[in-house]
């Protein structure tokens, strides 16, 4: 997924959330999103160990990359071009899951019903 498509999709997800829940959604999303630039750096320095794939959540690919030492360097080179798109795909998937949680507007607790006046005693 390229940067433009990612930005447009993320804006549409944010706009589909009620205004009352947007700040909570943005805070939660920013805390758990994967930074494509950071993953690119992990690929350059520790890509042969599969660290970038482990961080993006591709455990099987990370183990295979670890066992083969980055596919003898070839897989590590290919991931220089692919890891950013993979991180953005995971972020959009996470945002869609979180959108379903934050889509319902937050409702204030209803006030306690007023007590009925006691009937007059005779």
TrEMBL record:
Q: Which UniProt keywords apply?
A: Membrane, Transmembrane, Transmembrane helix
Chief site of localization: membrane
Provide the membrane topology annotation.
Answer: Multi-pass membrane protein
Residues spanning the membrane = 37-56, 62-84
Look up keyword GTP-binding and say if it applies: no
TM2 domain sequence ranges: 33-81
InterPro entries recorded: TM2 (IPR007829), TM2D1-3-like (IPR050932)
| Biased composition, class Low complexity, residue ranges | 105-115
Q: Where is this region: Disordered?
A: 103-122
Q: Which domain of life is it from?
A: Bacteria
Q: Which Pfam families match?
A: TM2
Question: Where found?
Answer: Membrane
| UniProt protein name | TM2 domain-containing protein
Origin species: Hyphobacterium vulgare
Upper lineage ranks? Answer: Bacteria, Pseudomonadati, Pseudomonadota, Alphaproteobacteria, Maricaulales
